[in-house]
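Researcher: Good morning. I'm working through a list of sequences from a screen, and I'd like to move beyond sequence-only analysis. For each chain I'm collecting a predicted structure so we can compare shapes side by side. This is the next one on the list. No need for commentary yet; just the structure.
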Amino acid sequence: MPPNAELDKYRPKVNPYEIIALITRHPELTVFLIYATIAIAGFVYLLTFYSYFNLPITTYLEVSDILVAGIKDPMVMLMVFGAFSVVFITWAVTYIHAPVSAWLDKKFNHGALRVIPFLTGV
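Model: Good morning. Structure tokens for this chain:
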């Protein structure tokens, strides 16, 4: 058994090299998904912004307003970038945390202390 086989059980199943290969093989899909995410975030931002004033904004919106809502406001771009950053940081922490998870699983795998690895995020 290779030395990392024990740790691979505790690491995320997402391989960043496969994601990079997918992005380089299909750049048009990547651009579409990023733009769709920004457009949806812009639409949600418009809905939440105008709901403060009790306006039925969906009756007044046009398709072009929805498509450019994410690009017009820099706050929406910041929200999307923040969401992607949180996902990446969570993945990195989980990947780095694998040796600790393996140790906790071995150490507290008996008796009443069995719940400790689950509480620490294994």
